[in-house]
Amino acid sequence: MSDEAKSKKSKSIFLFFRIALVTGGIIWAASRIGQEQRWSSFVEHFRQMNIWVFAGALCIFTFSNAIIGLRWWLLLRTQSIFISLWAAVKLYFLGWFYNICMPGSVGGDLVRAWYVTKHTDKRFEAVLSVFVDRVVGLLSTLIIAVFFYSLFLRGQSLGITSNESDGLLKIVAEYKWILMGIIAVFAAVLCGLLADKKGRLILTRTWSLACLQGTKIIAKLKNAAVIYCRNPLVILAMFGLTVFLQIMVITAFWILGVNMGIDASLKYYYVFFTLAWVVGAIPVSIGGVVVVEGSLVILFTQFAGIEESAAWAIALSQRAVWMITSLPGAAIHLMGAHLPKDFFVDYDKPAN
Asked: Quick one: three-class SS letters along the chain?
């Protein structure tokens, strides 16, 4: 089997796993919400919702996404990659659509990276800007979670208890022979390659290629890092802007929750939403479906003390806002507004 065929097979298996996780999670959520008493309470929360309050939360989230597109545009300009602001915003909304709605293995970040590299010779720096943009977002999210947890919820355990930790150690001990077997197989394969002349040649070439490519990547990373470090105020401003936007969005969801009759303090929203967003960034689902909602439900019911139906109502309201705000990305894709003809390029002549 060729490397390309193996790659396609592994992607298909991973996609199947993600779809299976989402399907199983939806069935589980439906079974939880569908219970008669819980269902009536769940529906009642949505009946209390004012459509204008929901529209306000929707507008705030859409505005936030547009400003995050501006954040990425500034990162690109820091690396002397000049595309129009409107182009960067369109690409960000396209990436958001892929992240939220598309079941494939190509995420929104890869979509952004793919299209921006078509308009510059600085392809590595362009891809790096997408990575830095994601890191800025995640770190800002963690900063909010840690700050508000330390401020309001210190002493209230949100982590693994001692009993759970002991259980985890027991599981590791139970499967230690499997782990040791994997290590032994890896060691045997390595020894076999070292013992064979062709094997040693393969290892030598692989190591040389890895060192060569690694050296190039490290050099480019160093150059990019130097450029970013020369503009610390820009990076700090981006962190501050991101924190402000995320607090604004979470506050909007809190107002929506209050409007739906959900009695939970704002401090819980700041901690639980940010934690759920970080967990949802792990690519085991499609757009964080089930993972984000499940995390919110567990956190709100276990630590904020609200009913499960109320937790599901606010979690699914967030999902509805996410899906609606992804629609501009779908329109951009269908109209071809993300294609190169709508972009400026770095220099006087387009990159080949």
From this structure: CCHHHHHHHHHHHHHHHHHHHHHHHHHHHHHHHCCHHHHHHHHHHHHHCCHHHHHHHHHHHHHHHHHHHHHHHHHHHHCCCCCCHHHHHHHHHHHHHHHHHCCCCCCHHHHHHHHHHHHCCCHHHHHHHHHHHHHHHHHHHHHHHHHHHHHHCCCCCCCCCHHHHHHHHHHHHHCHHHHHHHHHHHHHHHHHHHHCHHHHHHHHHHHHHHHHHHHHHHHHHHHHHHHHHCCHHHHHHHHHHHHHHHHHHHHHHHHHHHHCCCCCCHHHHHHHHHHHHHHHCCCCCCCCCCHHHHHHHHHHHHHHCCCHHHHHHHHHHHHHHHHHHCHHHHHHHHHCCCCHHHCCCCCCCCCC
| Among candidate residues 287, 244, 294, the one with its CA nearest the CA of residue 272 | 294
Residue 250 token pair: 């979470």
For the chain, how many structural domains are there in total? 1
In a domain, 1, yes or no: no
Cα separation, 241 vs 252, in Å, equals 17
Per-residue model confidence as pLDDT tens digits over 9-18: 666 776 777 7
Read off the pTM.
0.74
260-272 per-position pLDDT tens digit: 999 899 999 999 9
Q: Rounded to the nearest 5°, which phi and psi values hold at 156?
A: -95, 110
% of the chain beyond a pLDDT of 70: 75
Residue 317 lies in a domain: yes
Domain that holds residue 69: 46-158+227-283+305-342
Under-50 pLDDT residues of the chain: 105-106, 159-162, 164-165, 167-168, 171, 342-352
Q: Does residue 16 lie in a domain region?
A: no
| Residue 63 maps to a domain | yes
